[in-house]
Amino acid sequence: MSRIHKDGLEVPEGLIVESIVVCDGLVTVVARSLLRSSACPGCGAVSGSVHSRYVRSLADLPSHGSAGRLLLQTRRFRCRSIGCPVKIFAERFDPSIVQRFGRRTERLEGIVHHIGLVLGGRPGQRTAKRLVLPVSRDTLLRVVRRRAPATDASPRVVGIDDWAWRKGHRYGTVVCDLERRRIIDVLPDRETATAQAWLAARPSIEIIARDRGGGYGPAGRCGRPDAVQVADRWHLMENCSAALLGVVRNAMRDIRRVVGVRQLGPEVMTAVERKQYEGWRRRSAESAMITDLVKAQVPIKDIVRRTGRSRQCVRNIARGDRSDVFRSRASTLDGYLDWLSHEWASGCRSGAELWRRLRAQGYAGSLRVVTEWATRRRRDEATELPRRCPSSRMIAKLLMLDPDRLPRADLMLATLIEAELPDLWQAKTLVQRFHHMIRTGCSKDLDTWIQDASKHLVAFTRGIIADRTAVAAAIASPWSNGQTEGQITKLKLVKRQMYGRANLDLLRARLLGSA
Hints:
Blueprint: E1 2-4, E2 10-12, E3 15-23, E4 26-33, E5 38-39, E6 46-47, E7 50-63, E8 66-78, E9 88-90, H1 106-119, H2 122-130, H3 137-146, E10 157-166, E11 170-177, E12 182-187, H4 192-200, E13 207-210, H5 216-223, E14 228-231, H6 233-250, H7 252-259, H8 271-295, H9 300-307, H10 311-319, H11 337-345, H12 351-360, H13 367-381, H14 392-400, H15 408-420, H16 422-440, H17 446-453, H18 458-466, H19 468-476, H20 482-497, H21 504-513
């Protein structure tokens, strides 16, 4: 609470202003307490016997562009209680004015804390200087640490995931309250024992949203065996798409045979194609070398040191998989494709004329989008099959797209693959069924899907079986770990703002304090 003084200054409630001095860009307010007595901190007895007085100098909010200072006339009282070890004590002010041993008023302390939470040390110091608040970067961080809130001890639905202190070397764990949509704790590592101890200390947890990888599954089963574990839906769909990509890569020799094209020789390649070909040969040689080292049971750390490739690259080559997600690019013409097809079939083949007619239909896009569509359509009609086999990633994308959205050449290729490679088409159908289960929340078909997919998506199905309960909960439950991924993005932003000073206690204080 505060009140407005007759001179226009806002002073804390409970103080009497005796004088105001403005000198050399500093507004000094001399004040004293309204109370005539104070309670002894030793026995609690109220005493009004004044022993002596002294002045406490406190930094306060600026006023009219000048720094503020509050001089509090503080009294020392005698304690008259017999047996109390405290004989003389200083009066205690209300915590809303100043804390014990505080050097700043509480209202200034709150602003300093907020600046430290949002901006950190150096940026906060520069901002505070512009606001006429004399505070250093170390003080900002000390205030943030001192006022760090306690960890929420009773969450019901939590999301848990790892984040990188230094990618490939050191990781931590972040825990979010999914109901309150905020971070509630940051753990120093991602070890199973650390997460298990954290979960075991909180019996209120009923639902744990997590990824399927790492040690959080065993930690949840041991730390909170009664809690429902929910796998992350986005990673389930991404892993399923990656499994289809692996199937396509394994079938590329058959696909090239079906399409009837061969790899172009370097003598007929363009300069760009030759450069891409050389890069492909170099990557193929590196992959073959890494695969041989893995088969020879050479540790991954040694392979990284020998080849100079990253640990993640070596692991991906050793596993034979990649993390690809199939997405289709939206276009402003999506709502007019049927109309355009009808006009095209009626004989209108001019992109400019089609654009003018579209404008009459309410289309707000540019002429270039329509003319490019007309050019692609014209080329599609003149093409029967691709002159060279597309990449495995492109074929996997064609298989996942809606046939009505495919150009004629791509549609013919997909139809040819469906007719000649039924196993590949079956794998594509299984991936679509799995995506449909997740989107519709229908988990009753999961067992049937596992039985059908066990022959085509072997590795992915094996992982689903090992974590079936969490996968079924991910399909049927409204909870997911996507919110935790967003909180990790916030965590990384705060960590990078602090450069080398992002210690665990300071990082936790900033994340929990700004929630």
